[in-house]
Design a protein that fits this description.
single chain, five-stranded mixed beta sheet, 9 helices, 30% strand, TAT_signal
Length: 332
């Protein structure tokens, strides 16, 4: 699940409605932020009408064309293994499910072995740096400069990832380390290796990408990679049963309008439209909402000092028969 863009604070009309609710303080009454100069923002993002829409996948539309084969093999009791990459991209924190003939299955994998292998690693260095220019290079053609968009798709992807790593060197900007590995890009797909123009003896030594020129370095390095076996486990025999399974495993809070005040309801509705913010100490309505979604550590206004609290993870809640992701964050 990707994190949605941040919303605006409570609008004037909604603020006035909340202020009129008995027992609630206006946002304008507490417009000054707390001692740290910040407010706590709640944002609700509506999900589908069922959890199945989010967690039960169509294997024909997954990132890997091998997922269908892995599923069928596991159903037939056959061992289907992959090296390095997990089948179905299913993890304990982000499990995937599939349906076949009315039965729902949880998809996963177990590690059954380790393999030592050699992989090409592509790194890029700014050609303007004399030190890096002297040490970089892959033994290719030193006089050839190639534009990245003229390369095969796999090479272009490799250049993009290696560019992110090169850009991050020497500054605090960081890089997407899930993509960047060993300071560059690791070729793991055999077809990409076979069709690559950057891994041959006649490969160019320079590449132009995003108005910059880089020197190419390719090395072949040793890796120890896990071998995964696909697992498929039946968990439900109907859509209703599957929905109960998903609620039990993923729902953080269930809210009923009958259990909330009118002010708390207004907070939730505003949080869905525009995002809702208050500074500490919070109004009775906001505190009631934080308790209802089980985010009590925020009530003291200093959640970062509470051990074991992860303020960044979205919470999945159900309110008025609808599902939402609830996000909390401090804003200046």
């Amino acid at each position: 699940m990707s994190e949605p863009s941040r919303r605006r604070v409570l609008g004037t009309v909604a603020t006035a409605a909340l202020a009129a609710t008995a027992g609630c303080l206006s946002v304008f009454d507490r417009a000054g932020a707390d001692d740290d100069g910040r407010v706590l923002e709640l944002m609700l993002t509506r999900r589908g009408s069922t959890l199945r829409e989010d967690f039960v996948i169509d294997l024909a539309e997954t990132r890997s064309e091998r997922d269908e084969a892995a599923f069928e093999a596991a159903l037939d009791g056959e061992a289907y293994t992959t090296q390095y990459r997990k089948p179905f991209y299913s993890t304990p924190d982000d499990p995937k499910y599939a349906e076949a003939d009315g039965t729902y299955y949880r998809l996963g994998s177990v590690v059954i072995d380790e393999v030592e292998t050699t992989r090409p690693v592509l790194r890029l260095y700014s050609s303007e740096s004399s030190t890096e220019t002297e040490t970089a290079g892959n033994g290719g053609n030193p006089d050839v400069v190639v534009d990245a968009d003229r390369l095969p798709e796999a090479d272009e992807t490799a250049i993009h990832v290696a560019h992110l790593a090169a850009r991050a060197r020497g500054n605090g900007g960081g890089a997407p380390w899930g993509l960047v590995q060993r300071g560059g890009y690791v070729y793991r797909d055999e077809t990409a290796v076979e069709t690559s123009e950057l891994l041959t003896d006649e490969a160019p030594s320079f590449v132009r990408y995003r108005d910059r020129q880089y020197r190419i370095e390719v090395s072949r390095e040793r890796f120890h990679e896990p071998v995964h076996r696909a697992t498929v486990e039946p968990v439900a025999a109907s859509s209703e049963e599957m929905e109960r399974v998903l609620r039990a495993g993923h729902l953080d809070a269930r809210l009923s309008r009958s259990d909330l005040s009118g002010g708390a309801h207004d907070v939730l509705r505003t949080a869905e439209r525009d995002g809702y913010s208050e500074s500490h100490p919070y109004s009775d309505a906001y505190e009631a909402v934080l308790r209802a979604i089980h985010r009590r550590p925020y009530l003291d206004g200093n959640v970062e000092k509470d051990a074991g609290v992860d303020p960044d993870r979205p919470r999945l809640i159900r309110y008025e028969e609808r599902y939402y992701e609830a996000w909390l964050q401090f804003r200046e």
